[in-house]
């Protein structure tokens, strides 16, 4: 049993999203999959459709990936993929780069056909930055607009909400460590098919 298949599944889903290869992206998800991230919560199939619609509106992001860590137990696997979401955006006439650091947790399951598919994606946000593309350019953001957003994904939420998406303050982030710890316990319990998440706090 190798983690390579799960690693390639996770990387293929991200690559397909960035390249606009939507049929290949859709094939990565199980029929009952769930995706939870800043701007979207729903099924894997709907995530692909909404991603395509987002690109159609000209809202593009790319994902700079680090190697995923993969754990396998039977026909279940967990992969954690550190990444940076990069946006080239316009802020009231000033070109800027927005970078959001997060880690995405993937649940994957192997079907009766022997193929691994994504059962769930959950994002945990770490921090983000917003800088002008042109060195020395003046980039002005109203601090009162930012004050209502959490530090783990402040600029990302601010930008996406300005664009008409809905990003709440309930998402997982390192500024809420207890919720993140509970998420890890739940993921490890799922991997082991353990009904008591508290018993799976560590591997």
From TrEMBL:
Pfam families: SnoaL_4 (PF13577)
SnoaL-like domain segment(s): 4-121
Record-linked InterPro entries: NTF2-like_dom_sf (IPR032710), SnoaL-like (IPR037401)
Residue ranges of the TM segments: none
Name this protein carries in UniProt: Nuclear transport factor 2 family protein
UniProt organism field: Streptomyces yaanensis
Lineage, highest ranks first: Bacteria, Bacillati, Actinomycetota, Actinomycetes, Kitasatosporales
């Amino acid at each position: 049993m190798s983690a390579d298949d799960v690693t390639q599944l996770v990387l293929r889903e991200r690559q397909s999203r960035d390249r606009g290869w939507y049929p290949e992206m859709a094939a990565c998800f199980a029929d009952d999959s769930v995706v939870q991230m800043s701007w979207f919560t729903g099924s894997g199939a709907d995530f692909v459709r909404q991603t395509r619609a987002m690109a159609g509106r000209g809202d593009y992001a790319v994902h700079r990936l680090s190697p995923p860590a993969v754990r396998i137990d039977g026909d279940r696997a967990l992969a954690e993929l550190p990444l940076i979401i990069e946006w080239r955006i316009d802020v009231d006439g000033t070109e800027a780069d927005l970078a959001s650091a997060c880690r995405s947790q993937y649940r994957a399951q192997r079907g009766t056909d022997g193929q691994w598919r994504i059962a769930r994606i959950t994002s945990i946000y770490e921090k983000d930055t917003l800088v002008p593309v042109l060195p020395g350019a003046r980039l002005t953001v109203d601090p009162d607009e930012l004050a209502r957003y959490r530090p783990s994904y402040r600029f990302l939420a601010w930008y996406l909400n300005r664009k008409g998406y809905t990003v709440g303050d309930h998402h997982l982030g390192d500024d809420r460590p207890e919720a993140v710890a509970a998420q890890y316990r739940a993921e490890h319990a799922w991997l082991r098919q353990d009904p008591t998440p508290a018993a799976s706090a560590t591997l």
